[in-house]
Amino acid sequence: MWKMGRAISKRNKTSRLLRAELLLRPIISASASWWLEEEEEKGLEMEGDRVKDEALRLIGVFEVLPRLVVFDLDYTLWPFYCEMRSKWEVPRLYREAYSILHALNDKGIELAIASRSPTPDIANTFLNKLGIQSMFLAKEIFSSWTHKTEHFEGIHRRTGVPFESMLFFDDEYRNIDSVSRMGVTSILVDNGVNLRELRIGLEKFAEKSKQQENNEKST
């Protein structure tokens, strides 16, 4: 009888422990999830600071800089097509894009958007949600078959910046080709704008500006 009572007591204790574990599991899981989210946010913040510092360093290397940097939206600043999304969604930029925008802004370089998106309302909603709408001096967001030459004519009218003083990032070669013919230094991006593309763009702009200066001296 004593052994049986002890066994029952042990089973009751085990049962209580299991019930306690089941009750605590959601709390522990929620706490762990919160901690992981906090750590992820800290990590992203540190990564963002690192990218911005590196972007500022890159910009500081060059004596000749563009007066205006123009960005496409879809698959250049963010990894999706606007027309495939709802304005109620929460958008995100490519990992390094946000810090690059702020670095250019901090250096006094104006920013603009040239997008052929057929849903400018969604694009503008996303820019507002991301808190970057006010960073852009000009925004030309409309569908067009001209491969963005119309967009750049509009940007030029709004800003007064010559095409030769602009740097442009886009993910479509046809846009790069058309806009380059206008005199804009244009860079094709593969997986969103990042530090590598920024460096290539600044190098190409500086080389082109130096070549133009040499041509003017020789004439």
TrEMBL record:
It comes from the Eukaryota. It holds the Pfam family Acid_PPase. GO terms for molecular function: acid phosphatase activity. InterPro entries: HAD-like_sf (IPR036412), HAD_sf (IPR023214), HAD_SF_ppase_IIIC (IPR010033), MDP-1_euk (IPR035679), MDP_1_eu_arc (IPR010036). NCBIfam families: HAD-SF-IIIC (TIGR01681). PANTHER family: MAGNESIUM-DEPENDENT PHOSPHATASE 1, MAGNESIUM-DEPENDENT PHOSPHATASE 1 MDP1. This is Magnesium-dependent phosphatase 1.
